[in-house]
Write a structure and sequence with these properties.
Layout: H1 15-28, H2 33-40, H3 44-56, E1 60-63, E2 66-69, H4 71-83, E3 84-90, E4 100-106, H5 117-125, E5 130-137, E6 140-142, H6 150-153, H7 155-164, E7 172-178, H8 181-193
Antiparallel strand pairs: 1-2, 3-4, 4-7, 5-6, 5-7
């Protein structure tokens, strides 16, 4: 008779918690477990597991001062930043679905966008109310299935977005919308992940 080990509980964190943790360590490191738990809004057990996994993968090191990125961790974070170049908070507008909105700028991913539905579905799957996908092409911001010229049809939203983000040809802006900031951010990241 073969004995199989029963599966453990599902983890209480997501890949976006991992990305956000790497970002926090890159920006604020060395940073301790307690501060990471507060910033990520997850429990101590999940933080210990995240730290363990990132240490095992060679991405971080831990000391009495807290967690720091290793050379490998910095290399990974730099590669992510080449694609996800900016992340900003936006106020509610005609293009958003809720009070909290986070936009991420993805460099050179416009050719991967179809109708924007994949990004919306990914955002909803992680708890956001939705996502809006914009593509910068031909000097215009296009919202698939909504408008071929954001400046003409949504001038206020266009002005806010273009003032905050450094857009170049074939860039994508994905806006995650939710009732709380974390869900909006993770919705934007989940939507962005569909284009990476």
């Amino acid at each position: 008779m073969s004995m199989q080990k029963a599966p453990g509980p599902y983890p209480s964190f997501t890949v976006f918690d991992l990305l956000r943790m790497i970002e926090l360590i890159a920006e604020k490191g060395p940073i301790g477990r307690g501060k990471l738990a507060v910033e990520l809004e997850i429990g101590g057990g999940a933080i210990r597991t995240l730290i363990s996994r990132l240490k095992d993968s060679g991405m971080i090191s831990a000391s009495k001062l807290g967690c720091s990125l290793t050379k490998r961790g910095f290399e990974f974070w730099n590669r992510i930043q080449l694609i996800i170049a900016q992340k900003v908070i936006l106020v509610e507008s005609d293009l958003t679905f809720a009070a909290c909105n986070v936009a991420v700028l993805l460099k050179g991913r416009g050719d991967k966008v179809r109708k924007g539905l994949e990004q919306r579905d990914a955002a909803v799957a992680v708890g956001a109310k939705g996502a809006t996908t914009l593509v910068f092409k031909g000097g215009k911001l296009v919202v698939p299935m909504v408008t071929e010229d954001l400046a003409r049809d949504f001038p206020v939203a266009f002005g806010k977005i273009t003032r905050m983000l450094d857009l170049e040809e074939n860039d994508v802006v994905v806006i995650g919308s939710a009732e709380d900031p974390k869900k909006a951010e993770y919705g934007a990241l989940a939507a962005a992940w569909t284009l990476i």
